[in-house]
Design a protein that fits this description.
It is built from 13 helices and six strands. It is an alpha+beta fold. It folds into two domains: about 250 residues, no CATH class; about 35 residues. The mean pLDDT is about 85.
């Protein structure tokens, strides 16, 4: 079982691309007004009703094993509220979050549950919990709605498209932060990278022989072979409407974070220590107990 991270602060593991891209979106003219318009038209209510009516609702009674696994991940990442949990049929090695505030939902595809080891699934669930913890879900829903508006209402497209492109860029960058949350949840780089390999399409018959080195080597080769100006332009244009960065880049960014030592710092800082006087748990570098004031008696 991975260690619980006490009072985990999202800023401690937030990818720099994420924060910069969201700030760039928020300062665009009209961003706040469009946000309120999209959310006030009962977008979330539609989503929650559709899921509740068509997907399997996971509770501690209906599916206790999966419910316990999700709750454990929420506890590890110090999530203050457990989302509603649903499964969805589809042999995708993936999951997604949707909703807003009290109506946040986590949806896990059957393929992810069937095709992944426990630690790999912990990474996938942790990734989605990372979106919830960082407050990404609202903006992800908005990105989907903006795309629908651009596709279906040509008159609105010139006004919405700049916001759509900026928001899509941030959505992709937010995946790097969520990947870090996934690694903090499973606390096993091999499992995280194997999850990414499976998402990249490796056939099931080869799962038993795969290793993390393959995706790391592919990422290095990708950068070396396609690093020219024309290549960079092609990469930028071809991914403009995508909701996720390419899988090899996600693997590369995760490895960079571990190699930098920052991942280990987060684990060490938030692994927690218990006050031997009152039983309160504080972060590892706390100088005193916030409940009783103890300064030197820890477990």
């Amino acid at each position: 079982m991975a260690q619980k991270l006490i009072k985990l602060d999202t800023k401690s593991y937030e990818h720099p691309f994420d924060a910069k891209a969201l700030q760039a979106f928020k300062i665009l003219p009209g961003a706040d007004k469009v946000t309120n318009f999209v959310m006030n038209w009962a977008t979330i209510k539609w989503l929650t009703i559709q899921l509740a009516g068509s997907n399997f609702h996971v509770t501690k009674n209906s599916c206790p094993e999966l419910f316990k696994q999700v709750k454990n991940i929420a506890d590890i990442l110090d999530l203050d509220r457990l989302p509603e949990i649903y499964t969805e049929w589809g042999y995708f090695v993936n999951a997604y979050t949707t909703g807003y505030d009290d109506a946040t939902l986590l949806v896990i595809y059957s393929g992810a549950i069937d095709l992944m080891s426990e630690k790999e699934l912990n990474y996938i669930i942790g990734h989605e919990m990372g979106h919830i913890k960082s407050g990404h879900v609202l903006y992800h829903v908005m990105a989907q709605k903006f795309a629908e508006i651009v596709a279906n209402f040509s008159l609105a497209a010139p006004f919405i498209e700049p916001l759509c492109l900026a928001l899509n860029y941030w959505v992709r960058m937010s995946e790097f932060t969520a990947d870090r949350a996934g690694l903090l949840a499973c606390q096993d780089l091999d499992a995280a990278l194997k999850s990414i390999i499976k998402m990249a399409g490796l056939p099931g018959k080869f799962f038993s022989s795969m290793g993390k080195e393959a995706i790391i080597e592919q990422a290095k080769e990708f950068e070396q072979r396609y690093g020219g100006l024309a290549d960079k332009a092609i990469k930028t244009i071809s991914i403009l409407d995508d909701s996720h960065p390419w899988t090899v880049m996600r693997a590369a960014e995760l490895v960079k974070w571990v190699d930098s030592g920052e991942y280990e710092k987060v684990l060490n800082k938030y692994k927690g220590k218990t006050c031997s006087i009152c039983g309160n748990v504080e972060v590892q570098d706390a100088s005193e107990c916030s409940v009783c004031g103890n300064m030197d008696k820890w477990i």
